[in-house]
Amino acid sequence: MKHSMNQQTRRGRGHARRIGRTLAFVLPVVLVLSGTLAVTRVDWSGNSTDPVLTAADTSVGTPRAAKRAPQDVLRDKLLTELQEENPGVALTHLQQAVNGRPSLAKHCASIARALGQAAVRVYGPTRAQSYARPVCDTAFATGVAAAHS
Fold first, then answer.
1. Cα(14)–Cα(128) distance, rounded to whole angstroms?
2. Residues 53-78: tens digit of each pLDDT
3. Among 6, 31, 47, 129, which one is most buried in terms of CB atoms within 10 A?
4. What ranges in the chain are assigned the alpha helix state H?
5. How far apart are CA 149 and CA 108, in angstroms?
6. Three-class secondary structure assignment of 68-108
7. Rounded distance, CA 33 to CA 39, Å?
């Protein structure tokens, strides 16, 4: 009796081992395929008319027509900071935004120029120039000079 019980236990372990091996092989394949399907379902271009969220969709809950480009949102936010704080804070946040989202780098100079022009309106040319720093090369200083001329 002991011998037949031992064979059944081994047989049971063999089945469990086989099921475990099958799961160890199949489960990663299923996870990779489901992840791949999820990624292909997202419209990474940001130009979708599909109601499914796009990868670049940052304004959930707002109408599609009201969406603005990220650089425009950033510029407006920084202009508000410039008025509420000072140009130094706005320039620091501009540099952090460009470091965090390299796609904004091509808009950095135009945003910095806009900040320079706004700084002249708020602080005057001399004080505005005192906040100049090498964010986006010399675009802030260029904006100050353009607004002062």
1. 78
2. 444 455 555 555 468 999 999 999 99
3. 129
4. 2-41, 70-84, 87-100, 105-123, 125-130, 139-148
5. 22
6. CCHHHHHHHHHHHHHHHCCHHHHHHHHHHHHHHCHHHHHHH
7. 10
